[in-house]
Amino acid sequence: MNDARPATLYGTLHTLSAEAPQAGMRLDKWLAECMPEISRSRLKVLIESGRVCLDDAAVTDAGRRLKGTEVCVLDIPVAQPADPEAEAIALDVVYEDDDLIVIDKPAGMVVHPAAGNYSSTLVNALLHHCGGSLSGIGGVRRPGIVHRLDKDTSGLLVAAKTDAAHQGLAEQFAAHSLTRAYRAVCWGVPMPRQGEIEGNIGRSPNNRKKMAIVERGGKPALTRYRVERAYGQTAALVECRLATGRTHQIRVHMTSIGHPLIGDPLYGRQTGRGKGLPAEARDRLTHFPRQALHAFLLGFLHPTTHEHLLFESKIPLDFNKLTSFLEGV
């Protein structure tokens, strides 16, 4: 049943073979029997994060029933120290009190430690800035973190200093009662120029690094968009407002209607983009170094005072340079 069991448990690929007696078993239950060193809950997380393949296809459903003829590959990441360290990293603090802190995050900064990024994250900076006064609800790896922005998305993010603030903010995120608006630059001009994009978002069955609109499973997602300015037929500046908050939601939804974000390395396939532009202009647009996405508006009820707070972030320099360039092409 277990074709190969590397000597070290973490940081390895494990290849297992399902046989006829396992036909009909749940994937997570079978893996738990094969790998008793790992808890079933941990295996479920690995499956849902796309780290399990059956016959070379990623599987994200822990309840998947086996045929009894599959070859399974389980990718277990390297274990890392649990506690992030405080680092003296400059932060653009928009607002701060005893309960929470609002940061204008630059593009390129990861929010919390994870595989491949165990230092220089927003969490490391917050631990230094706040002197340890961060909510513990997020766990040792994510103290104070109520929500995230992708590494290369810039803009506003709120973190909790107390457990009570964390709980209050988390309830607002769960109820989708906050105000969250983004500006994005996409390829082409969406039609109609104002509308809604719906579609359940889940892990892509073909690429574990990507999210996708899925027919089965996933979580409901709704994005409202409005074209603020069109740059010919080449691109558009779009305001997107989140009615839900799913991983990569704007990036996935805009791609689904044929208008991926400029600079998006994961969803913004560059083939055929910028047709009709001079080669130099097309090259500059296709090599914009990050997804053109900025969280410019964030509003919520203060979890302690119940005051309505609304913050707006200026568009960053690289984003402004991009739109200024598009004005001239």
TrEMBL record:
Source organism, top-level taxon: Bacteria
Reaction catalysed by this enzyme: uridine(1911/1915/1917) in 23S rRNA = pseudouridine(1911/1915/1917) in 23S rRNA; a uridine in RNA = a pseudouridine in RNA
An example molecular function term from Gene Ontology annotations: 23S rRNA pseudouridine(1911/1915/1917) synthase activity
Active site: D150
Keywords: Isomerase, RNA-binding
Pfam families reported in the protein's UniProt record: PseudoU_synth_2 (PF00849), S4 (PF01479)
Transmembrane segments: none
Function: Responsible for synthesis of pseudouridine from uracil at positions 1911, 1915 and 1917 in 23S ribosomal RNA.
NCBIfam families xref list: rluA_subfam
Protein name: Pseudouridine synthase
Biological source species: Telmatospirillum siberiense
